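User: Need the bound-state model for iron/sulfur cluster:
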Amino acid sequence: MARLGYALAAVLGLAAVGGGAAGMLGREWTLAVPWLVPLGGLELALDPLGGFFLALVGAAAVPASIYAIGAAGGAARGVGAYLVFVAAMCAVPLAANVMTFALAWELMSLASYFLVLHERERPESVQAAWAYAVMTHVGLACLLGGMLLLSAWTGSVRFADWRAGAPLLAAGARDLAFALLALGFAGKAGVIPLHIWLPLAHPAAPSHVSALMSGVMIKLGVYGLMRAGVDWLGGGPAWWGTALLLAGVVSAVVGVLYALVEHDLKRLLAFHSIENVGIILMGLGAGMLYRQAGLGGLALLGLVAALYHTANHAAFKGLLFLAAGAVVHATGTRDVERLGGLIKRMPWTAACFLVGAAAISALPPLNGFVSEWLTFVALLQNTQIAAPPLNLVFALGIAGLALTSGLAMACFVKAFGITFLALPRSDAAAGAREAGPAMRAGMALLVAACVALGLGPTVVLPRLAAVAAPLAGAGAPARPALGDWLTVQLSGDFASLSPLAIAAALTLGLAAPLVALRLAGASRRRRLYETWGCGRMLQTARMEYTATAFANPFKRVFDFFYRPAKRLDIEFHPESRLFVERIEYANPTRSIFEDWLYRPVLAGLHAAARSVRPIQSGSANLYLAYILVALIVLLVFA
Amino acid sequence: MLRQLRLALQTGIVAEPAPRTSELERVGERLRTDILRRFGRSLHIRQVDAGSCNGCELEITGLTGPHWDLERFGLHFVASPRHADCLLVTGPVTRNMAEALRRTWDATPDPKFVIAVGDCGRDGGIFRDAYAVVGGVERVVPVDAVIPGCPPSPAALLAGLLDAIGRLG
Amino acid sequence: MIAGAALGLLQVFVVAAGAPLLVGVLRTLKARLVGRRGPSPWQPYADLRKLLGKDAVVSETTSWIFRVTPYVLTASMLVTALVIPVLVTRPPLGFAGNIVLLMYLFLLGTFFLALAGLDAGSAFGGMGSSREVAVAALAEPTVILAVFALALRAGTINLGGVVERVEAEPWLAVNPAHLLAFAAFFIVMLAETGRLPVDNPATHLELTMIHEAMVLEYSGRYLALVEWAAAMKLFLFLTLLANLFFPWGVTHLAEPVPVALGLLALVGKLAVLTTLLALVETSVAKLRLFRVPELLAGSFALAILSVMAVFLLR
Ligand code: SF4
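Assistant: Bound-state model below.
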């Protein structure tokens, strides 16, 4: 029964891919059912941008659902919510008026809330779901505020009318609407500092759901930012793009820094989602800045880079979550310090995770490299804007992106190396078994996606350019020159890239030393012996490097950011302090955002609540008096 | 920094000429033919202290300095037996170090050979028959050559090493 | 097509065959500077030949990652040799990528080598990996900003384009922005190729190692490949420094005579840079590991200054 549900979700995903692809190719489609819901009725419309995100949701849902058939093992809990979740995500990019959008958005949030509550017996899950619910509804409030303002000012709840009406609004009104919408969407996308729900909620959900939440749900936040920024409001002043670009830099660097010191496998991946949303926002922000400067071609490049990275992140982060899920499934733990040696026990999962890790670290010739390269190329051409402060912002983005990709590489060396290599650090890891065929099939699909997106930018880019062209503003070429089938050629001679040629050369490069060694008559004998440990008697897993130790150089270099607290707890023997019974050492990091943002806000809320408590007496007479006073005040003002 | 560079340039090369005679003992036939062919131009040495008094180590360290400069002959000390062609073992092999020495020998890729250094390495030296020592490297791993002395001087060490790879004189 | 392929092979050959010599010359120079006679410059070839004749001892804890890594490392260096202008401005695979690609090709090698360091489960290897990725990650921003400074002026980030542009205006080579970017890149080269003061290539003490700690487990042909790849990395970085910043002699003609002249020019420039490197390495002490970020931050500041200088001097 449950399997049937997941199969249904996979079919739904396939349909979404078909529909989305049609939309991307320019097929328009609308559906209006005015009587179904109040305030404008139900209205769906397919356009290229919506089509792209619809296809993305579908393409991510297919492998996740196939994987779920194996992972859930027939358990019924969560199937219904999962189906609603997938369906709602398909509806969001199609929604064409405020009511439809709000319904789909809230349905998506609610369904994922229940999925986060999957293990509702565990207090952490309940807490995660609570944080998620609060943050998502604060975001919803912002969104509704922005949308209702726009509806009131333009006099229509239909998005199509905003496109015509919004550019005519006063600058202040547009700024306010953008700020509200951007806050709401950025919260969903997990942009720092609105990210705190993300590392709590994503790990709590089952892994196929985490894959969808990280892979596509937060991307719908990106979708919203794109829609609001360059579609509904039709672009705005330079500060919009600047804000998005800077938010992107901060999210990328901070996200990856948190990931580095995180040793819960799924939380680590969740922090990397924040990082990657940051990279997407860099592309988007750059696109908006170029658009504002009237450089249509470059604006197109920035937007395309953002879209490409969106698709890539869905592929490799989905893959990584599924592989991490397989590890959790097999070992029952998410703590990397208790894993190790899994490459021998789960070779397929290890290989899949390795592909995902290489892709997210932007190693050529996989997909993450292509989109980070595009983002670099987009950022590097900022000299065409003649405004030194903006150039400095761009330079910051360039350096931030480079730092991010280096740190992400470091983090995935840690994640893969500690989880899969060397000796198992616990019995659970030692007894792990390979994932079942359905789970492996789900992962294999995403591996194929990572490779295809990495090798095929010459095919993918024109499609994405077609999606982004209407959004890139004045001067954007309808059919930009992007090179030939082999090479991507951007902005004339500015930059070129040919992943196919690189992949071919790398293959040759792998073969060359093999042949050379054979020709040189190198010895081909190999003897297995223990790891070199200076002649010590045995090797145990406790002698291995740990994830904590691996991350320690970063903790020390960035200690102004992590602000690590040192706790040393020694228990002595009651007879003499010379005999130590137990030593406990902890070196936890502290979150700047929790300490300096959320805690003061919460404290303020509590204080405010306390101060209004006196008027809550519980006496009915008093409440009647309040109503009377309120009526009188209203009448006076009316 | 500049002063140091000036000093370096003024001093010039201080390496002593290569030694001419060696006191290498027990050189097997294998050493003469096989080793010479393989390691004549490049020999990487892992030094193993199997319970020496460190007298031998002091002299060995002297080899890497400017005066004896063993790198000019293609000899090089390495940090891991995996990289080594030759184990240079000092000390009478205490009981606690016997297993470690054996494992180091096993960890070294073939082809390889062992040179015992000092009287201790040869047969236990002044520690021979003490209760805590096995007595001589040969009791633990096969020894291909011995450089005697207590401790052998750097000149004797260098001569012995060069003799082993057939580059003496 | 044929000429292109031949040119590509020639570049790969120059890098692959020249790299051990470069390392040998560097070692000899360093030895001479401290009063030693030092090994012959050809010593690395003898070392490699000997390593090829040896068996490999592989830890039973390791997986296929450990065995594949030497090949991946070598492949990434060979591909880099095809992409960058070693002899000609537009090498046959030059179209395939630009300097951003190079950054990531080097990261590809680092990624696998760091994994191999963790694979044996020895604490030394883990320590080396952790430090190597830390240094590599912190060096990235400088690389890209130094390149940005170049690209700003050249109007392209394709390596061939940069080289041609600087060649066309020789006085650019003494421009302050250019020299600042060169200094930044030089420091990054020290860090990325494991030279003093970041890492001591001749150390025997595991606790102070970075690169060496990761390869402690390698032996025989695997070690030969790893060392060869490390030599190629040094060669490639010095070539980049030489040809991006002082591209005299790099030709855009795929004909024998200019290419031969290009080779001569390259040898000359590499000789100068190698001497410079030897002087630096003999006159500075190794930094404590946690002082290395300060050095890299310094190089980052240089790169930022160079970008600003481009804007100011425009
Ligand atoms: S031979 Fe002499 S110097 Fe060497 S270890 Fe033995 S006692 Fe010490």
